Amino acid sequence: MRRADTTRLPYLCATLKEPAVSADPTQTLAFDSSCHLFSGCGFDTVAPGLHSFLFKPLWGDTNGIYFNKPMLLALLGSIVVVGFFWAAFARPKVVPGKLQLVAEAGYDFIRRGVVYETIGKKEGEKYVPLVVSLFFFVWMMNLWSIVPVAQFPVTSIIAYPMVLALIVYLVWVPLTFKRHGFVGAFKNFTGYDKSLGAVLPLAMTIELFSNLLVRPFTHAVRLFANMFAGHTLLVLFTVASWYMLNGIGIAYSAVSFSMTLVMTAFELFIQAVQAYVFVLLTCSYIQGALAEHH
Amino acid sequence: MTHSWVQFAAEKENPLVPPWPELVIGLIAFVIVFGFLAKKLLPNINKVLEERREAIEGGIEKAEAAQTEAQSVLEQYKAQLAEARHEAARLRQEAQEQGAALIAEMRAEGQRQREEIVTAGHAQIEADRKSAAQTLRQDVGKLATELAGKLVGESLEDHARQSRVIDRFLDELEEKAEATR
After folding, report:
1. Which of B9, B32, B49 comes nearest A82 by C-beta?
2. Chain B closest CA to A260's CA: distance in Å?
3. What pLDDT is recorded for position A17?
4. What's the Cα-to-Cα distance from A74 to each of A154, A159, A201, A234, rounded to whole Å?
5. Which among A2, A12, A137 is the nearest to B33, CB-wise?
6. pLDDT at position A59
7. Predicted TM-score (pTM) of this structure
8. Which of A77, A192, B90, B117 has the highest CB neighbour count under 10 A?
9. Which residue of A has its CA nearest to B26?
């Protein structure tokens, strides 16, 4: 393990003796709440940064096995998703109740609007459970961002999108081999097309690289980066509202606070959109694996 | 305490490098969701959705059957109505024909009876006229003879001559009458 000096940390205020991140695990706020504008305290002391995405373990040691807030939220989130669908679908009725109707609408939206639309009804039916689980799981993980007290999108930690992208990768890559055989799969990955002529080797190299290496990376990072940026903005406006709450700064604070509200609404939208994009890409990859000619 | 936390933060400097415990928890969390949804909850709702689809289609089929039955009943009714109308028209026609025939028959009968009566009347009148003419001829002959006897003062007893003269006179009268007619 690398022993880092505190001064090497780019996101800590250089003049600060104490780190911006609270060291006290019992403290709920992740910044110094006594730091205000015009009180000789710079905004860089409280500004959000990479440290906003780091959590002191609730249990265990960072060098080994540990358990922190995003992990707790991930597990809680899956319980919430399962709980919701359990309540709706455990004893489903032909004439649905309100909850079943809502859950059915969500299920139908993904099944019909995403899976059937991209893969087709016949081929896609097999992947409906995976895609539905992915959508609602990702959406719930994103939603934690604006749930009071939780207020952290689990998907802004790269590990979670990466696991999901890896699962999707392990679905469509073997599927390509199974469907087309080794040579067919290779042609599928490389976008083999004789009409390209002399540029064919170059095109094939780029395609292979793009499909097998860049694709899973961008699949995970697209979700991660959106949620990361969204959370940073929310924290920035929230912290700034508090920081500027001093003297004439109250006026600035009001602007910042209204931005917090606007961004919260915007995040609510982005969370659903990103979950949708994630499953849409999943379906498009599976469809590409099933397609005869890439 | 503070020191170790900062070190921890430093180690996790690159946000694109995932720490493995979070990968594991992420996997577990997703597997929980996928397991419940794929193994129990989605098959559950699929069954119900299928049942609902069948129920709706069954309802549509039932409605279609009812409609078909109603249609056939309506056609049957219409056919019956048409038949009844036809029958009524036929009966009316028959009655009309029968009535006409009856009237014609009655008329013919009346005609016949009238002619009979007229014929009988004519015969009667003829007979009466004949007998009256006979009687009149005798009476007129006798009266004329008597009158003539009185006038001429001589008895016209001679029957044969008398009879011939009267007859000739009467024939002349008759001829006159014929001529004036």
Report:
1. B32
2. 24
3. 36
4. 6, 11, 44, 20
5. A137
6. 83
7. 0.70
8. A77
9. A160
**Domain membership of residue A39 as a residue range:** 6-290
pLDDT at A26: 41
Cβ contact A158–B18 (<8 Å):
yes
Instruction: State the Cα–Cα distance between residues A234 and A10, nearest whole angstrom.
Output: 21
Query: What pLDDT shows up at residue B9?
Result: 54
Contacts of A119 (CB under 8 A, 6+ apart): A127, A283, A286, A287, A290
CA dist B88 → A72, A127, A141, B98, B150 (Å): 91, 72, 83, 15, 89
Nearest to B11 among A2, A79, A137 (CB): A2
User: Does residue A1 form part of some domain?
Assistant: no
pLDDT tens-digit series, residues A1-16: 344 433 333 433 333 3
Contact call for residues B1 and A96 (beta carbons, < 8 A)? no
Set of chain B residues whose Cβ sits within 8 Å of the Cβ of A134: 30
Locate the domains of chain B by residue range.
Answer: 19-180
Mean pLDDT for A9-35 is 48
Whether the CB of A181 is below 8 Å from some CB of chain B: the reply is no
Residue A69 lies in a domain: yes
Note the pLDDT tens digit of each residue in A158-209.
999 999 999 999 999 999 999 999 999 999 999 888 888 888 999 999 999 9
Q: What does the pLDDT look like over A119-156, one tens digit per residue?
A: 999 999 999 999 999 999 999 999 999 999 999 999 99
Two structure tokens written together for A240: 């700034």
C-alpha torsion sign, points B106, B109, B115, B120: negative
Structural domain count of chain A: 1
Distance from CA of B43 to the nearest CA of A (A): 9
Low-confidence stretches of chain B (pLDDT beneath 50)? 1-4, 6-7
Tokens (6 digits) for B165:
């003269």
Size of interface A-B (CB pairs under 8 A): 152
Amino acid A145 reads S
Put simply, the answer to whether A159 touches B8 (Cβ < 8 Å) is: no
Reduced DSSP (H G I as helix, E B as strand, rest coil) percent helix, strand, coil of chain A, to 5:
70, 0, 30
d(CA A21, CA A283): 40
Is there a contact between A157 and B18 if contact means CB atoms under 8 Å apart? yes
Residue A9 CA to chain centroid, in angstroms?
25
**B61-80: string of b/e by CB count within 10 Å (b at 16+)?**
eeeeeeeeeeeeeeeeeeee
ipTM for the assembly: 0.85
Tens digit of pLDDT for each residue in A35-91? 888 888 888 888 888 888 888 888 888 777 889 899 999 999 999 999 999 999 999
Q: Which of B18, B48, B51 sits opposite A162 (nearest CB)?
A: B18
